[in-house]
Amino acid sequence: MGSLRSKPLQRLYRQKLRRRWLFVGLCWFCLAPWALWQFREDFLLLEDHFTFTAVRYGLAFRLVPAFSLFFCVGITGSTLFWQSCHLLWGLSPQERRRWRLQARKLRDIRR
C-alpha cells in the first residue's frame, strides 16, 4: 500500500479490501456450513475408516458441496494473495492509473 499516497486512493483501497473480506466472510458463513452439513454421513464413515479413498468418494459424489468448499478456500486464497501482493510490491502503474480514475469518478459523483 506504499504506492497509495493520496487519501482518496487509500480510502478506495480500504473500502475494496473490506468488501473483499466481507464477501469471503459471507461465503464461509453461508456456503461452508451447508456444505459441511451435506458431508455429515461421510464424516461418520471417516471416523471409522479414514482413508483417502473415502475422502475422494465423498468429494466425487457430492459435487455441489465439494465445489462450495473449494470456492470458499479459493476465494480466501485469492484475497490473501491479492492483499499480500499489494503489501509487498505495491500497485502496478496500470492499477494505480485505474484506481486514480475510479477515485476521480467517485469524487465527481459526490459533487
Summarize the structure.
With 111 residues, this protein is an all-alpha fold. It has one domain (15-110).
How would you sum up this structure, described in words?
The chain has 111 residues and is mainly α. The chain has one domain. The protein has 5 helices and no strands. Helix 1 runs antiparallel to helix 4. The chain is elongated, with a radius of gyration of 20 Å. The model has no long low-confidence stretch (mean pLDDT 89).
List the helices and strands and how they pair.
Layout (H helix, E strand, L loop, with lengths): L6 H32 L1 H9 L3 H10 L1 H27 L3 H18 L1
List keywords for this structure.
111 residues, elongated, mainly alpha
Number of domains: 1
Helix content: over 70%
Radius of gyration in whole Å, from Cα? 20 Å
Low-confidence blocks of residues: none
Largest sheet: none
Strand percent estimate: under 5%
Oligomer: single chain
Quote the average pLDDT.
89
**Order of helix and strand elements from N to C terminus:** HHHHH
Continuous helix count: 5
> Between the first and last Cα atoms, what is the distance in angstroms?
27 Å
Structural class: mainly alpha
Gross morphology: elongated
Number of strands: 0
